[in-house]
Amino acid sequence: MASVKRKAPAQAKKLDLKFTIDCSNVVEDKVIIMRDFEKYLRERTKVNGKKGNLGTDVNLSSNATSIIVQSSVPFSKRYLKYLTKKYLKKVKIADYLRVVATDKTKYELKYLKIYGEEGEEE
Asked: Which domains does the chain have, with CATH numbers?
């Protein structure tokens, strides 16, 4: 009988996820405050089923116009969009802004185009 060689179990790859939320348009017009938005994300983000449990697996940082989320555990970009929309609803500006994916790893806050305000005269 031939001996069968077994393969060693494959080691899991270490994830290096990096997502960005670009708020440059909105911050320039002073519609939202980045410090408050970052605080909201820190408090509400769930990691391993617990709120505010970022630990060392998820790193949330911000600069003057954007928020950067880096993760070494599975983390959904869609979840960031969900939290961003909840924040916009909380500060009551969701009717004027939308969250748009501009890249595979990037969201951007853009103003909604409201038709009918300009050039509509009867």
From this structure: 17-111 (3.30.1360.210)
